[in-house]
Amino acid sequence: MKNRLEELRKARGIRQEELAAALEVSRQTIGSLENGRYNPSILLAFKIARYFGLTIEDIFLYEEDES
Known about the structure:
Layout: E1 2-3, H1 5-11, H2 16-23, H3 27-34, H4 42-52, H5 56-59, E2 60-61
Antiparallel strand pairs: 1-2
Helix pairs in contact: 2-3
């Protein structure tokens, strides 16, 4: 699953540390999300969407495997 988290965060001039504090997660969690190494829980996905005033689908892009 891809996401637009880094793009949205940078467009608003927010540091990873600031976003992490607002979402009550570690900065490492934000970094892992942005690098695609971690998929958020549904609760965290909702928190992120609410923080940016967007829908989950606006931030997280699900791509099915073509196998």
